[in-house]
């Protein structure tokens, strides 16, 4: 007798069976198909929205395409509260306010023109040397990018005092006997082309001695190679915001007659930019690359200047105190200059006429380049109020 054949057990019911059954029913029901289509469209739209929201942030992480999305564009506040750079009052990121300073002796002889690099300086001292010619000590933050500075010329004793007060690297080509004798006695980071020639170059397009140049990049390398102090130890001036446009005069002109017409300097105030354009020998003074030379602040310092030898070299008193005129915001202020010793910072104080109570306070400067013109007490500097 054959055994009865038992029925096979049914496979267990799964979620997959439910899904297949649901879609089989949906294919037969028109209303259900419509509901599914709407739901799928909503889900797809929501997904695309979430993806597109992330695109600007992803572009930022990889550098973007150079165009800013309106979704990520942020405008800086009207008032910049970052710290001011010590040498010129320019707003910089925190930690960058006290940069290493580089100073360079730059000549101004007619045969040396056009000069390179003055338009990029944060601070310039201009003073007479032999024969009524002027020479400049141009000062730069080490972080600046000035590709050519010069022609670089020889040192004079008074320029050493201005470099020392800033604790600046002092770049030059030789110097007068007095200057060269003083340099080893001073706490000065000296960079003489005669002994450190690799940090200068001589242009084949200019004749000697007007053919020596350097740059901020090369001078930065000198600071590293010679293991010099990375930051200066110089006192800072007091800086302020520019005067409001409504408080600025329409014009102002200052004329500094150093000697002959070739060295006659004038500064013309521009109300819109609240700055002074430099003119020399009757023409707008431009760097060799065409950049105009502009100052936010201008100072005329009166001091004792005398000729000391047959070569016409000068002795200029840099310490003590004396009269000066500060020009900023289109206005002139008679002030007193003070410098206690060679390494003390040159400072300027408002005179009694500027303050109702007769007290003196330090001048507050505009942020940007400052030019200091050093002249004998007998010089007649002409300017309008």
From TrEMBL:
Highest taxon of source: Bacteria
Compositional bias (Basic and acidic residues): 78-91
SUPFAM superfamilies hit by this protein: YerB-like
Annotated DUF3048 domain residues: 92-223, 254-372
Spans annotated as Disordered: 72-92
Entries under Pfam families matching the protein: DUF3048, DUF3048_C
Name of protein: DUF3048 domain-containing protein
Species in which this protein is naturally found: Candidatus Uhrbacteria bacterium RIFCSPHIGHO2_02_FULL_57_19
């Amino acid at each position: 007798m054959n055994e009865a054949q038992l029925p096979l057990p049914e496979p267990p019911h799964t979620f997959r069976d439910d899904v297949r059954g649901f879609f089989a029913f949906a294919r037969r029901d028109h209303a259900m198909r419509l509901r599914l289509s709407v739901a799928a469209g909503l889900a797809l739209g929501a997904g695309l929205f979430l993806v597109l929201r992330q695109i600007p942030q992803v572009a930022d992480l990889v550098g973007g395409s150079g165009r800013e999305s309106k979704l990520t564009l942020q405008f800086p506040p009207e008032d910049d509260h970052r710290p001011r750079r010590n040498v010129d009052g320019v707003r910089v990121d925190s930690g960058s306010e006290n940069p290493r300073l580089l100073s360079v002796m730059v000549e101004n002889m007619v045969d040396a023109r056009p000069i390179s690099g003055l338009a990029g300086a944060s601070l310039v001292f201009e003073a007479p040397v032999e024969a009524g010619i002027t020479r400049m000590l141009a000062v730069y933050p080490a972080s600046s990018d000035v590709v050519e500075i010069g022609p670089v010329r020889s040192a004079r004793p008074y320029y050493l005092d201005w470099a020392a007060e800033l604790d600046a690297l002092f770049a030059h080509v030789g110097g007068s006997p007095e200057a060269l004798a003083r340099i080893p006695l001073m706490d000065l980071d000296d960079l003489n082309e005669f002994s450190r020639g690799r940090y200068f170059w001589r242009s084949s397009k200019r004749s000697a001695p007007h053919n020596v140049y350097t740059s901020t990049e090369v001078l930065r390398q000198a600071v590293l190679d010679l293991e010099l102090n990375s930051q200066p130890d110089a006192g800072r001036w007091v800086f302020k915001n520019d005067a409001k446009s409504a408080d600025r005069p329409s014009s102002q002109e200052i004329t500094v007659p150093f000697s002959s017409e070739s060295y006659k300097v004038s500064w013309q105030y521009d109300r819109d930019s609240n700055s002074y354009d430099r003119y020399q020998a009757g023409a707008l003074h431009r760097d060799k690359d065409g950049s105009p030379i502009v100052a936010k602040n201008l100072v005329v310092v009166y001091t004792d200047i005398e000729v000391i030898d047959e070569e016409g070299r000068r002795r200029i008193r840099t310490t003590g105190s004396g009269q000066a005129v500060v020009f900023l915001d289109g206005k002139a202020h008679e002030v007193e200059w003070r410098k206690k010793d060679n390494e003390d910072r040159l400072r300027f104080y408002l005179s009694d006429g500027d303050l109702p109570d007769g007290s003196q306070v330090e001048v507050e400067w505009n942020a940007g380049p400052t030019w200091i013109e050093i002249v004998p007490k007998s010089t007649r500097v002409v300017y309008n109020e």
